[in-house]
Amino acid sequence: MTLHRDLLEQARHLAKREPKKPRQASLRRAVSNAYYALFHFMLYEATLLLFPNKPVGLRERASRAFSHGDIRNVCEAWGKGNALVDFATIPVEPTLRDIAATLRDLHERRQWADYDLTKTFDRVEVLRLIDKVENAMVDWKTIKNTDNAKIFLSSLLLNSRWNK
Which of 25, 53, 131, 137 is such that its CA lies 20 to 30 A from the CA of 8? Predict the structure, then answer.
């Protein structure tokens, strides 16, 4: 199993861990794991597209070059359909927009879960977020070979450098 699948499985386990009254710690970790599941899934797809498998370790090393903040900014633009209007095919596929918006939303909720103790989470909300991540991974398979999907993956790494 890949890291992103393991993280998603762990998120679901944490969200259901306490059967009657879930602890905030479990729900918060579930939200964080759900975000990281989608984050690592997109990194896996991006490095698969951009970097060869040989030499061994190149893809893993390259994955360290991705930044959470840059990815969030890219997803903000793509989620609104405003991505690289001079390069991408417009309109951006609704599925791609939804995946980008899901990653952006999960990034924000992960920030809340990890750092904002004034926020509380409930099991239904957390399970819904986990389902959104799982759906995004499934939906990705339907668009991953489109030109826009390839541009999106490339922009996750290169967006802040393209306009220099």
Answer: 53
Q: Concatenated DSSP letters for 60-104?
A: HHHHTT--HHHHHHHHHHHHTT-TTTTTS-SSPPHHHHHHHHHHH
- Return the axis-axis angle of helices 24-50 and 68-79, rounded to nearest 10°: 80
Q: Which helix (H) or strand (E) holds 150?
A: helix 147-162
Q: What is the pLDDT of residues 91-127, one digit of tens each?
A: 888 999 999 999 999 999 999 999 999 999 999 999 9
- Measured distance CA(150)–CA(147) in Å, rounded: 5
Round to whole Å and give the CA distance between 96 and 26: 30
